[in-house]
Amino acid sequence: MSTDQHRVSADQHRVSADQHRVSADQHRVSADQHRVSADQHRVSAVPRGTGAGVAGRTARLGREDVA
User: What is the number of alpha carbons within 13 Å of residue 13 lying toward its C-beta?
Assistant: First the structure.
């Protein structure tokens, strides 16, 4: 293999490694977006005005701890 062929092959490997890095980053972003979406669904599932929100749960837990 000539020097030029080695150089091209090395460049191709570098590009491939960069593409894998980008793909891994995209998967990480996608996982984060799924986590955010799941959190939003959890928040929207809590009935409003029932005291079942975070403040209501925290207050109830505080009372149970004291009792």
Answer: 6
Confidence at residue 11, expressed as pLDDT on a 0 to 100 scale: 92
Q: Judge residue 53's burial from the number of C-beta atoms within 10 Å of its C-beta, 0-12 exposed, 13-18 middle, 19 or more buried.
A: middle
Q: Are 56 and 50 in contact (CB under 8 A)?
A: yes
Per-residue pLDDT for 8 more than 60? yes
Q: What is the reported pTM? A: 0.44
**b/e map of 11-26 (b: 16 or more CB within 10 Å)?**
eeeeeeeeeeeeeeee
